Amino acid sequence: MGYGLVVLSAGCSGLLSFCFLAVSIGTDYWYIIDVNKPNYTDSAELSSYSGLWRINEGTLHFWSDFSRELHKAVVIILPLGLVLLVFGWIFGLVSSLACSPKLLTGTAFYFLICSLFTVTGVSLYIEYSNKAMEEFQRVVAPKELAYVKVSFGWSFIMTWISFALELAAGLLLLLAVQTMRNGS
To answer: What's a Pfam family in this record (predicted)?
Structure first.
């Protein structure tokens, strides 16, 4: 695999990572609570879905202070990772045009650090979701929980895809350095 192809692949990976993370941050389908109660016509009223910026709830409202603090951390970390990706893409473009192994290596590690921001944000969101579910279980009667289905939505999955693409961009840039040193 030639240097140009590897660098182009890393650039596409970084750009796609940015796109997936931007879409996931801007959408509201991170966590879905679906209530399907038999013989109840307004089950949708009890259902809810949430994103980073808003929660679309039915008639139940539950929040603890700890859940709020976790949510604030996620809302800070993931957009910060998004901004860092923009700079990573710029650094990657400059270092690949300069054909500098040191700059490419630095950019590769920069992308790997960006992936740490993303995985930290996702991990905090999982913890936040677990705490929200504990609150939900405390508020809702145990027999009613049989009708509740909880899942992570497609926005959450897109964040994991972004994380994988960030890792790929970093590793591809390291491969580009190796390819450059081997003279291909």
So the answer is: Claudin_2
